[in-house]
Design goal:
The chain has 281 residues and is of the alpha+beta class. Helix content is 17%, strand content 26%. The chain has four helices and 15 strands.
Length: 281
């Protein structure tokens, strides 16, 4: 038997198991089955996109497409917040702070509030864009966060994120700062890694550092029920049932019952993909 024939049989043997595994559990294990892409010389190498099984040899031209998660296609029971093509489900923020939004819009008509929102969208969406199946933020300073148009209560959320050297961002569940994203080498506080609760009163660092190297994809699983939150980073539990503080109420009140999912801008390029949610209400 030739070496190539042996590997073909080996991959065919494991493909059924890949097809029958639960999609959500794949995501909990970081869900990244590499796919091949063709190089200019006609050979193949591993890609970091999901959707195939790699044999790990750059000379092979075999691609086995298992029935595993494809880019921006949600696992069973979840729905996509981003379809890979448009930001139709997303908008800019009139202000990051809901207290200031309430003050600014207090005496405005619905039409005037709509105009404010359109202005926020125009400014924000000039720098947050859907590109090549990803959400990309170009790092321009003075640009607001990106939030879902829909508000959510109790939920489970999967998302992939990637940052450059020195990158910084965060996920605001119900617009509550924040599940931290940053380069662990970017500063003294950063060494604990991503996934902790910052601006939380008190801040809670992740239990373990589980970041992939800067420039590689990472996967969050975030669950929020009431004011309790769980975070898994790349399959490693880093926050387990901690209380999520309400930064906008000086931590004197619990988080609101519902709010948007927010991607934070922080002056560095950012990339997101595979944003999937399941409501638990």
């Amino acid at each position: 038997m030739t070496i190539r024939a042996f590997w073909v049989l080996a991959v065919l043997a494991i493909a059924p198991a890949a097809r029958t595994a639960d999609p959500a559990s794949k995501f909990a294990r970081n869900h990244s089955y590499p796919a091949f892409h063709k190089l200019g010389n006609g050979s193949m190498e591993d890609s970091d996109l999901v959707g195939g099984i790699s044999l790990g040899f750059d000379w092979t031209v075999l691609t086995i497409q298992a029935d595993v998660q494809k880019l921006n296609v949600p696992p069973k029971g979840f729905r996509a917040l981003f379809d890979g093509k448009t930001l139709a489900n997303w908008r800019g923020q009139i202000d990051e702070d809901p207290r200031r939004i309430a003050k600014v819009t207090k005496d405005l008509s619905d039409a005037e509030i709509k105009q404010l929102q359109e202005a926020a969208d125009q400014k924000t969406l000039a720098h947050w864009k859907a590109e090549d199946g990803l959400i990309h933020y170009d790092g321009a300073r003075g640009v607001g966060n990106l939030e879902t148009r829909e508000h959510f209560g109790n939920f489970e959320l999967y998302l992939d994120w990637k940052i450059p050297k020195g990158g910084d961002s965060g996920i605001f569940p119900r617009n509550m700062p924040q599940v931290q994203i940053w380069d662990p080498a970017g500063g003294k506080r950063n060494v604990v890694g991503s996934g902790g609760l910052d601006n939380n009163g008190p801040d809670i660092p992740p239990k373990k550092k589980a970041d992939n190297p800067v420039g590689e994809w990472n996967t969050f699983y975030i669950k929020m029920v009431g004011d309790k939150i769980w975070v898994t980073l790349n399959g490693v539990p880093v926050i387990e049932g901690e209380t999520k503080g309400n930064y906008w109420k000086e931590f004197k009140e619990p988080p609101p019952a519902k709010g948007p999912i927010v991607l934070q801008s922080h002056g560095s390029h950012l990339w997101f993909r595979n944003l999937f949610i399941r409501e638990l209400d």
